[in-house]
Amino acid sequence: MISTMTWVITIAVLVLVLLFDLTLAILRRNKETTLLETGLWTVFYISGALAFGFLLPGWTNEQAQKEFFAGWLTEYALSVDNIFVFVIILTHLHVKKEKLQLVLLLGIMMSIAMRGVLIPIGVALISRFASIFFLFGAFLIYTAVVLYRESDDESKWKEGRIVGKMRAHGISTFTIALVALALTDLVFSLDSIPAIFGLTKNPYIVITANAFALMGMRQLYFLLQALLKRLIFLSKGLAMILAFIGVKMIFEALHGVGIDAIGPVHVPEVSLEFSLSVIVTLLIITTVASLTATRGIAGAE
Questions:
Q1: Do 120 and 112 touch, CB atoms closer than 8 A?
Q2: Which residues lie closer than 8 Å to 300 by C-beta, 6 or more apart?
Q3: pLDDT for 42-72, tens place per residue?
Q4: Angle at 165 between CA 162 and CA 171, to 5 degrees
């Protein structure tokens, strides 16, 4: 059980970091971010997450540490995919560079706000309805199938009806970009929240894993612009991760309602160690395969 003081300190530190990022974005809103700067900030935020994870057993336990790393890796990978969609949308809308920092910051704040609303709802549903894992698991598998099929066309983005109507009515590009990012955030939040609950039911781990995954997304945007054409298998890897977590959730739901076997077949109990190894392996394979397949693009550039 996490003490009230631990919650207060954790939330205070996370809020301070986010406020620092907000201040930095406002001060540099009219400046172009360099590749070196984005790289250093990305290393800083990743190091912060790793340090938090390694120190976590000091006030929780080793199980929480494993859950945090599994959750953070999954949420961070989903955040990277989210950033790629941001790149496509903002490039398509031709958002001015001096407005880019502010648009990104507001988009990331919307991501945090949506998760802040959806996480308590998820906790309440799980605490009251154990069978909700069947629904979450099925939804993740469905999402994985859709993502896998659409990943071949991930470099294209089509305006939805709402965005199209806003453009037709002469609404500013800045406002259109915010609406487009908000709709994207909503879709990704609906995927990421069930995914994290498939790995841990601890609210403290759910919140901290999401917070660390969202930290530095603004800087990460500029770093990933150059990799958009190279990580061609990222969505396929994420689809497999979501499908794996979805199946894991259904297995847990079956055990939760007292079904340990279906006929002669025993329902597996998927350990967190195995889940973490699968997530790490899929991310490594996806990254290496993508970079290997696109060596020609890197050479040409």
A1: no
A2: none
A3: 888 899 999 999 999 888 888 899 999 999 9
A4: 105
Neighbouring residues of 99: CB distance < 8 A, sequence distance ≥ 6: 29, 174
For 38, the token pair is 């984005």
Q: Which two tokens stand for residue 9?
A: 């300190």
Spatial separation of the C-alpha atoms in residues 256 and 188, rounded to whole Å: 27
- Least Cα distance to 113 among 34, 189, 28 occurs for 189
The answer to whether 231 and 298 have CB atoms below 8 angstroms apart is no
Tens digits of per-residue pLDDT, 163-202? 677 767 777 877 888 877 877 777 777 778 888 888 888 8
Q: Which residues, 6 or more positions from 64, have their beta carbon under 8 angstroms from its beta carbon?
A: 56, 57, 200, 202, 204, 205
Position of tokens 């920092």? 101
pTM: 0.78
Q: Which residues pair with 265 in a beta bridge?
A: 262
Q: Which amino acid is residue 78, in one-letter code?
A: L
Secondary structure letter of residue 267 according to DSSP:
P
- For residue 249, give the nearest of 195, 175, 187, 289 by alpha carbon: 195
- DSSP state letter for 246: H
Structure tokens given for 15: 């809020």
Alpha-carbon distance of 124 to 272, in angstroms, equals 23
Burial class (CB in 10 A: 0-12, 13-18, 19+), 289: middle
Q: Which amino acid is at 222?
A: F
* Contact indicator for 290, 234 with CB cutoff of 8 Å: yes
| Size of the chain, expressed as the number of residues it contains | 301
